[in-house]
Amino acid sequence: MAKKLQYGTWPQDALSLTVAAYMNGDHGINECARMYNVPKPTILRHAKNKNVVANGDVKSFGRTTVFLAEIENELENHILKFEEMMFGLTPTDVRKLAFDIGPTSEKWTDT
């Protein structure tokens, strides 16, 4: 049976120490990964500043969101209001609604 992966089990404060040790040339990538218990791909991503999801030394998991928090809350309230009026939306309806107000719609373009 395959080993179950545990994402994000490395300590948060160890990341900055690991990246600093690797960037200064004090230790190689393998040694840094062993010493600080941080995965090699994580060290390399932060060292090359290619970590799109998390800025700085902050852990961030999962997909990034498309909408701002207030837009998501507004969409949620809109869906719940429809539900209170006994006009429930299907998942397809919700996706269409989100697509209509999303960044590809005319509201988001500079024209």
Automatic annotation (TrEMBL):
Any Pfam family hit: HTH_psq
SUPFAM superfamilies: Homeodomain-like
Domain called HTH psq-type: residue spans: 13-50
Highest rank taxon of the organism: Eukaryota
Chief location category: nucleus
Compartments (UniProt record): Nucleus
InterPro entries, sorted: Homeodomain-like_sf, HTH_Psq
Record's protein name: HTH psq-type domain-containing protein
